[in-house]
Give the backbone structure.
Amino acid sequence: MQIEIFDGHSDLLTELATTYRLTGQVDFQSKYLTTFQQGCMGGSIFVAWADNELAIPLAKQIEEIFTVEKLLAEKDDTLWRVETHQDLVSGRAQGKICYLLGLEGLDGLEEKPQLLTWLRAQGVRHLGLTWNEDNAFAGGALSKTGQGLTTRGKNLVQEAEKRYSFLLDVSHLNEASFWDVLKLVQEPLIASHSNSYTLCPVPRNLRDEQLRALASVGGVVGVNSYPPFVDANRTKQNLQRLADHVEYMVELMGIDHVGCGFDYNYWDADDNKVALPELAHVGESQNLLQELQKRGYRQEDLQKIGSQNFLRVITERLNGEKQP
């Protein structure tokens, strides 16, 4: 029996935008729908992310991704953008793949007038402050300065939470920025795609005290299948080790605070793909839950990890939006 999955982090839109840039076409169904169905993917957070290695301004990349997302929302009847709680209820009742439009970092948007108002007008409901580097708002996971939230960042976090009820994401923040956010917010946060630092000590993973803090505010952490975040030893970069991260975090945080944030690789060719064996693409997502089932996890626990924990937090945030 398959368990529904809500994936806390997908780079699908960036991949579709790359194809759109080359061909002028946007096509989810022929290339990805079958694998989404195989993985029993009921929904996801589809993020916009800008690549600073491209010779295209970061803001223009983000705007292109929003254009692609709008085309999907208008033309693809299998996908369902969620902006309100009623959207979520309606989409799930119709069996759609429900997604939140998200932003993986505000890099390149620092000078955008009325930034949060503009993002909400695009349909954005999820927000990460930065990617791996520092920007005008926060320090990233690979920060060279160790800066926390700037004054602009603190103001933005407070407005994002209190006025617009964005779902705030701390996965790419450095420790100083992480703790600054925790001091400011009163609502559940997510770390959409991070693992345990104790099991794999890299800057993108979270230390035990960070995991406990997220649980204390009702948050959720989505485990990440990107191999270097699973284990430092390449021979241990496998499905079983990712399941170890789930078990470790469940023991530390409780079953209500762990989900899936697979961060699948859409970029590399299959013969050169950086991906976990048995968890290389969205169609293999059930393999993680099956591994946990072998370890004694009950169906109700698998449902929480698969989708219910993320959907709980999303529902809380969607119900909390204030009118601008």
Remarks:
- The chain has one domain: 5-318.
- Residues 288 and 294 are 10 Å apart (CA to CA).
- The beta strands are 5-10, 41-48, 79-81, 97-104, 124-128, 167-169, 190-191, 220-223, 258-260.
- Residues 299-318 form the longest helix (20 residues).
